[in-house]
Amino acid sequence: MVQGSGIRPVLFLIYIDDLAKLLERNRFTVKLFADDVKVYLELIESADVAKLQVALDLITSRASQWQLKISVSAAY
After folding, report:
1. Which of 34, 39, 46, 61 has its CA 20 to 30 A from that of 20?
2. What pTM did the predictor assign?
3. Buried-state track 26-35, b at ≥16 Cβ within 10 A, e below 16
4. Is residue 70 part of a domain?
């Protein structure tokens, strides 16, 4: 029996591409692999922390809009 729909992967690709473009327009370095999104920002001064928060807010907003859960894990 076939589970799900063939359109789901396409919709996810549209979502993830849209998120990457949004973050890049806001001058964040973005790395994508499968369903992972990594955002890079060098924190040099205290104002950079606010910029990082903007990226996190954008990701949270998009995830909420598309009804997706965010899984956060630390990568060192």
Report:
1. 46
2. 0.69
3. eebebeeeee
4. no
- Residue 75 domain flag: no
Q: List all residues 6 or more positions away from 18 whose beta carbon is below 8 Å from its beta carbon.
A: 62
Encoded tokens for 44 = 């040099």
Examine residue 76 and state whether it is found in any structural domain, yes or no. no
Q: In angstroms, rounded to a whole number, what is the distance separating the alpha carbons of residues 10 and 56?
A: 24
Give per-residue pLDDT as tens, 23-62.
989 888 998 887 778 888 888 999 999 999 999 999 899 8
Residue 37, both tokens: 């999104």
Q: To which residue do tokens 């205290």 refer?
A: 46
